From TrEMBL:
Keywords: Signal. Residues 83-101 have a biased composition (Acidic residues). This is Cell wall-binding repeat protein. Residues 1-28 form the signal peptide. Residues 47-126 are annotated as: Disordered. It comes from Marvinbryantia formatexigens DSM 14469. The lineage of its organism: Bacteria, Bacillati, Bacillota, Clostridia, Lachnospirales.
Amino acid sequence: MRRHWKQATAFFLTAALVTGSSSFAVFAEEAQTEAEQKETYIAELLSEEPVSETADTEKEPDTTPEISEGDKTVEEAVTEATSETETETVTEVISEIETETATEVTSEVNAEPASEEQKNAKQSRSDFPSLYPDEYYYMEMFTYVGENWSIGIRSTMKPGETIEIGPKINYNYDVDGEHHADEFLDFYVEWEIIEGKDAISIEVNKENNQRAYLTVNEDADECEVRIKAHIMHQNDDGSVEELECYGGSSERVITIDKEYVPELIKDLREGEDGKLYYYVGDEIDAEFEGIPNLKYQKDKYYIKNGTVATDMNGLYLIEDERDETTTGDRYYFFKNGKVDGGYTFTGLAEYEDGTKFYIEYGVAVTDLNGPHWVSTAVDDGEKTTVDRYYFFTNGKVDTSFEGIVEVNFANLLFYKYYIKNGTVATDMNGLHWIADELDDTTTGNQFYYFTEGEVDKGFVGLTEYNGGKFYIKNGTVATDMNGLHLIEDALDETMAGDKFYFFSLGQIQNAYKGLALYDNEWFYLENGYLDTDMNGIVEYNGGKFIVAAGRIAREANGLWQDPKDGKWHFTANGQLQTQHTGIASYDGQMFYIISGELATNYNGTIKHNGVTYTVVNGQLYK
């Protein structure tokens, strides 16, 4: 159901009980159930679209339901309810009216289907009676001890006990359609004992006339007593009026039980010296040491010698027997004796033995395991930035772990880090060989390229490792890189300039000497990279080839002179034709070739194409 306006919430104060025997106990047994639903504006229910159980489709009433003259108005019903001996809550009154009205609406829906115009029409708030006026006061009752408070008045007391009671008032009003609720302080209370005048007495607090002390007489019999608070306001002209309060109840019923044993409340109270003292009932407990289960405190404190141990700062191991709030030993992070359960410190804290723990809300997170990003500072008196991953075991930085860990974000982004001494090894850079037992992210030994302890997937290029050179891609050696590859200067941190390198499984083969194919061309390699200074004959795979500037001279055909020894060779596509014996032409002359080489030592005659030639030093003459 939609709500058009907001009902102000009550101010909640912690309860405490003052006994005649000087023992304190505080209770909050009487919950204010009406407050949970009093915001509901009854016209809201009427503006809903009720559905008949027998109807096939949703229908709306075509007329606004009315409350007949014979019926009670909402205001009359509420007024009557609050005045009955057996007090009926506002919520119950509203519930009855809602049920009756909804039944009438449903009957009308079944009687006649609504038109389209009626379905589209919106009923305004002014069409229905309002539960509250535009401006009103709202009251809640409380019990006190000092400034500690609890909603509701104790429902059970024993003879001789005293409690301090009092109301809180909210002033509710609308401004420009928005609802406001402000605490109203300009009032005092006149208390009335409706039933049980012989059993109890009420004395107004002389320092605060909004509160009073309710005492059960020592000789009181077991019975029920009823009290009422009249909220009084003095106007500017000096006249006094009683304020009418909507919501809450100005009356309370208290049962007197001689056998009743009140709970001894554990609480902290501020002394005149400004210190917080630990009370059990109305007595300071100087014997207890540890973290007590305080009744009205969500925070945790370490108590010693009856007061908060304000000298406790940093991380402490609190054993189970000294912690009433939980079971088992636990590490807590304290500030001035208080467990720092807020947001002031989250991160690493160091224990006295040097062990570091991850702290959230003042407690070591003992279920934290594996890598975890810490973006805070170690609280060691000086703030030291530690934005990095740490490796945890049961919430403790695990300095014994060493190896590769993987961190993923939403199963989309994956990062690997090398952990040593409990955190990322930021001094780890370059290529490293990681043994299988140090890497749970994969199987087998593996090369990784690191930048400050993180596997650097962004680095691409050559790097050196243990005298060798490797090509890195995606954070590891590119083992699919084989043969001759041109590496640009920007990708080579080992040498300057663009160079051809010969690879096998991503590693430059420094010992390799010979020919290698690249882009349908053959090149000569020395020490694993292209030797552009090479000019001459190179033997490869049983053949001999002419190399010029480090490349096989495939354009070389016919006679070719070796610049190293001056010998002439017969070639085809840059390869020496050692199987050839016969005549070869060069520069208009003919020469005699034996086994692919010019026969400069041959002198004599030969017959070629039916003609006999004289051969002098391998050259033919007629």
